Amino acid sequence: MHSTLLTIFESLNSGFIWMDREARVRYVNTLGCTMTGLQVGGHVPAGPLMRAVQATLEGHATMPIRLPNANGDGSTLKIDVMPGLSRDDTMAFVEQVTAPTGEAMASAAAPSNIGLENLLTVIRTDLAEPWQRCAAAMREARDADDMAAMAPLMQELDSVGAILSKLIDLAQIWSSGSLLADDRIEIWELLRSTWETVQPLANHRNVKVRFTRFPADAPLSCVYGSESWLRRVLVECLEAELRAAQPGATVDIEYHQQGQRIMVVFRDSGMFAPSRSQSTMLSAGTATARIRQGAGNGEPPHARDLIGQHLCRQIVELHGGHLREEIDDDVRNFLIDLPAGAPVRSMTPEIDIQQAQQYARDLAALMARRRTKTAAATASPAKE
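Given the sequence above, the corresponding structure tokens read:
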């Protein structure tokens, strides 16, 4: 199969199955394999899907069918079967239409609920309590007409205001569920321009940053999505890295292009992390582990860093990427991993399916016209 088709089918937000006349699977993308259990070379089992395939091959329009998810989590799949690229094959698009039930759903929800509980804990610690202390102290300073006491209070209020602003951003990106921007973004250039924003903090902390690009001479690949939100990710990560670095240190930040992936790697990183002996993999449950373990000084992480971590993860996931950390010989590297392509539209899977179906129809029509031209040329007598 052509690499372009493979890329298209694997990037779908739905499962995709391509079957021949004998209902043998010619190709199934990773998501389709997970949801249906079908494998390349295997046959579609007898049942509703087989009947829909046979009806489609006979030229009949079929209604979407519903089957249980093969992973056994209690969710239901909707499968649309349509004609393939020739008269002898069919294609099916698979999407999940009901949520998991029972223990599977409870298990899936647990990390999110625990993460929310911990997020609320640090908000209470780093927002509510400082605000209450400031309010009480300001009332006392006002009653005593002590203006000198106001300066440190204003500084603490500025810190609380910055955290509140970050929390509002997190709520905005969390509730959107999808990105509406399709900016063309060169991450290497964005990283270098973002450095200008955080350079004053580096100067203040006497920390140097060294940027390296791999491969150095390769044309830059692009990410498509929201430049302003990805810039926010880089700002959050750079600032967190600078705060975690020791004064006088040099921070190594690498840009890598590997096939269809773009990675920004913070070498020997201490951002968003407790002491190295307590490091854990960055995932939906990471905040839980880190709050229980505490930071390197035995204190829980500051709300500023925890909210920044959640914000970065959400933005990167909306672009189809993820954050992760790698531990190598007790050295922790923090990675931003992004795909070079359009961002995931998690709230509109039906649009993704419609686009893929239209692409398949257009490609089938093109191939049919080409076959007609070839047949006509073969049937026409040669000109003298």
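The longest strand covers residues 250-258. Try to locate this feature in the token string yourself.
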